[in-house]
Specification:
alpha+beta; Laminin; two-stranded antiparallel sheet; two-stranded antiparallel ribbon; 1 helix; 23% helix; signal; TIL domain-containing protein
């Protein structure tokens, strides 16, 4: 039982480390976020509600451009 508790604790620590992923400029890490980010050109991946990946997304007020960078919505072409 003690071994099981140690293994579970190790898994929790590893999960916390993985979820604290470093994100790029104007991005934030979200757990169980939408399937895809919002892009300047308005394209949509079409599967927003079927998966919820843990990854970096554009911060509020930012959209992805064609270079996959998060830029202010006002700077979208």
């Amino acid at each position: 039982m003690k071994t099981l508790a140690i293994v579970l604790l190790a898994l929790v620590v590893c999960a916390a480390y993985v979820s604290s992923e470093e994100c790029g400029a104007n991005q934030e890490f979200r757990e169980c976020g939408p399937a895809c980010d919002t892009y300047c050109d308005g394209h949509d991946c079409g599967i927003r509600y079927f998966v919820c990946p843990d990854k970096c997304y554009c911060a509020k007020g930012y959209l992805r451009n064609n270079n996959e960078e998060c830029i202010p919505k006002s700077e979208c072409p």
